[in-house]
Amino acid sequence: MNFNWPYPKTIAHRGAGKFAPENTLASMKKGLEFGYRAVEFDVMLTADDVPVLMHDPLLGRTVAGQGSIAQLQASELTRMDAGRWFGSEYAGETVPLYEDIVRFCRQHGIWMNVEIKPVPGYEQRTGEVVAALTQSLFADEADCNQWPLFSSFQIDALEAARYTAPDIQRGWLLDRVPPDWLERIRVLDCVVMDCNHLHLDQNIVTRIKAEGYGLMSYTINDAARAQELFAWGVDALCTDRIDLLSAS
Description:
The protein is of the alpha/beta class. Helix content is 30%, strand content 18%. Strand 1 (10-13), helix 1 (25-33) and strand 2 (38-45) form a beta-alpha-beta unit. The longest helix is centred in the middle third of the chain and has 15 residues, at 123-137. The protein is globular and about 50 Å long. The relative contact order is 0.15.
């Protein structure tokens, strides 16, 4: 493996999820206001297999109500208020379709780290649908560095995305780096590891980079820690504090 990081180095977490309602069009716009040209967001499926931006599999935190996202039709979910919980000025901000966010980001030159975030039990199907739709949305883009990077904690979702759209690069999301990480990432055929910065040290970073893999880290909200990680060789950081870490 010899993967040279071609993407921006600072990435706005869930759009600008601490400055506007996470995973909404408003959060993408807010990140752009701060100069960010790279975003991370979560995608899951509705009952009718439509990818939408959503982090939680159950209603209640960012969207009022009860029940699973997998039990709702896209036409129902995208009429629900996903902004009022954050602040009254965002009342009426709706759950966006993945397809609409892709179009917005492409229009404004924003690179995307797409976390495939399945409702439990829908891992394979989510990976398949998100990968197939992404492939069709970028069919006119010859520069693969403009394509999104898929990432997921769910192995079945990553494998399904690989099978469906093998040319779209993938990152393995994980909390702690396991002892057998090299064997496992080779089997997954991912080019990037995306690790919790709380469990990274210079030795682990050096080993990952020596094997030629890209390395992202989440969620860094302190400028000194960001500088340390970059000095160790981490390629990119996901952050909530787009006001503290300059877009690069």
